[in-house]
Write a structure and sequence with these properties.
Blueprint: H1 11-25, H2 37-44, H3 48-61, E1 64-66, E2 72-74, H4 85-92, H5 96-118, H6 121-140, H7 143-159, H8 164-172, H9 174-188, H10 192-210, H11 214-256
Antiparallel strand pairs: 1-2
Length: 257
């Protein structure tokens, strides 16, 4: 009977596998700067040349990149291959925002459920931090920062599910999601009561996750998105009424002249 020779893995390959796992699990995020080579060598308890070789392999794979001025970063646009021209069409199609809301119902309902079930104490601290950032920008009425904080809040929930596919699906749709949330807020936020309601819904979702209540968290996510959809529909109806009123006024002005 023949035996296959057991091949000792290269240290650089082991380091690379660990760093790839950190990217998949969300410990290393797109755009995040890696610690210096010396620090990585200390953390992995290996030599600096082994770390250097692992990093070079990951750069060749497109997972890491070097920037002018120094430093190695997780590739900023990691996962954005899903953001192809078709998704650009979604941004401008009038019905796409409602289809995307339906998609978010499915994705974020599951995300909230598993976040409440699986999130660690560290996960909950991160979600709360994102919520507090959102609260601050909400109070300051810093619109662009609030949009980013809103997205970060939902992505932190996705990360706390410890489901790598779910997390990276959310991240891959980050650009579209940011555009979608931004458009929603522009349409909804002129009305302070709607804006306050949406922020309160985020608080209910946070509380359900922190208390470890999966069904309540899923319901909070669905209720939030249902409210957004109803608010958008109502805003659309108001815009239609305003356009009709303006048309009537213009006709009246023509008749009087």
């Amino acid at each position: 009977m023949g035996y296959l020779r057991v091949k000792q893995p290269k240290i650089s390959d082991v380091i690379m596998q660990q760093m790839e796992a950190m990217i998949l699990e969300g410990a290393l995020k797109p755009g995040q700067r890696l610690p210096p080579e010396r620090e990585l060598a200390l953390r992995f308890e290996v030599s600096r040349p082994s770390v250097r070789e692992a990093v070079q392999k990951m750069v060749a794979k497109g997972l890491l990149s070097s920037r002018q001025g120094g430093g190695t970063y997780v590739t900023e646009r990691l996962g954005e291959s899903l953001s192809d021209p078709l998704l650009d069409l979604f941004k401008h199609h009038p019905e796409a925002q409602y289809d995307l809301l339906e998609f978010r119902h499915a994705l974020e309902g599951v995300s909230a459920y598993y976040a409440a079930m699986r999130s660690t104490a560290a996960d909950k601290r991160e979600i709360r931090k994102c919520y507090e950032d959102l609260q601050r920008y909400h109070d300051e009425k810093a619109f662009d920062k609030e949009v980013m904080a809103d997205v970060d809040f939902h992505l932190a929930i996705a990360a706390s599910t410890h489901n790598m596919v779910l997390l990276h699906m959310m991240r891959a749709l980050f650009t579209l999601l940011r555009h979608h949330i931004g458009d929603n807020l522009k349409n909804i936020y002129p009305k302070d009561n709607w804006r306050s309601s949406i922020h309160s819904q985020h608080g209910v979702l946070l509380e359900a996750i922190e208390n470890g209540e999966p069904e309540k968290a899923r319901k909070a996510a669905h209720d939030h998105l249902m409210f957004v959809e109803e608010a958008l529909l109502e805003q659309g109806r108001e815009n239609t009424r305003l356009e009709r009123s303006l048309r009537r006024s213009s006709l009246t002005d023509v008749d009087e002249s």
